[in-house]
Amino acid sequence: MEIKWYGQSCFEIISEKATVVIDPYSEEIGLKLPPLTADIVLVSHQHHDHNNVEAVAGKSGGAPKVISNPGEYEVLGVYIHGVQSFHDAAGGKDRGVNTIFVIDIDGVRICHLGDLGGDLSNEDLEAIGEVDVLLVPVGGVFTIDAKKALMVANQIEPKIVVPMHYKIPGLNINLEDLENFNEQFDAVEGEAEYLKVAKSDMTKEEREVVVLKPQGQ
Predict the structure, then answer these.
(1) Domain spanning 2-209: which superfamily?
(2) Average pLDDT over residues 45-69
(3) pTM of this prediction exceeds 0.85
(4) Using H for helix, E for strand and C for coil, what is the string for the chain?
């Protein structure tokens, strides 16, 4: 399967079973999505930089299946577990709730943390379970920062870490750039066009860090 990033927290997962788009944003943030089609759209929370479901067309002419709440779902052989968390470190008092999505697709488990704003509890970690690819916010201000992202990654122990929700050219939201992330995670400089993964790749002992190029920006 292939995983592409479009800036902010928006990803496209393309597999043999289905195409999943996560957290499509509105153009108000200064970035513009290309035309996207999907079978499933996941929305971590109802902020305009994450919930523009109208920007994604259905694969077969109809509307895609939209999932925006915690719970367990199965669509076209893709298993999705939404875990409730918070957009802040005050139990949701400042910015409300956030849904973490764990996506089991083609034998690979992908965890998208949404706009996680605080620590993960033992209950959260148990609900998340084993993770192959972790999509983690690192830009601070409205989410966890790079230092906290490293702590979360060490708790979850994924095979691959991909940063998201940080400052890129054109974005008009005030976030930290990748400098602190690169220092915390010892990331190799350079961006990949996309991440190609398969179940057979998930046997590596050492954690891999992949920085993706924002598509279409």
Answers:
(1) Ribonuclease Z/Hydroxyacylglutathione hydrolase-like (3.60.15.10)
(2) 84
(3) yes
(4) CEEEECCCCCEEEECCCCEEEECCCCHHHCCCCCCEEECEEECCCCCCCCCCHHHEEECCCCCCEEECCCEEEEECCEEEEEEEEECCCCCCCCCCEEEEEEEEECCEEEEECCCCCCCCCHHHHHHHCCCCEEEEECECCCCCEHHHHHHHHHHHCCCEEEEECCCCCCCCCCCCCCHHHHHHHCCCCCCECCEECCHHHCCCCCCEECCECECCC
Contact 212, 5 (CB under 8 A): yes
Q: Are 100 and 113 in contact (CB under 8 A)?
A: yes
The rounded mean pLDDT for the chain is 88
Structure tokens at 64: 């895609």
φ, ψ of residue 172 in degrees (nearest 5) = -100, 15
What percentage of the chain carries pLDDT values higher than 90?
Answer: 61
The β-bridge relationship of strands 36-38 and 11-14 is: unpaired
Please tell me the predicted confidence (pLDDT) of residue 138. 94
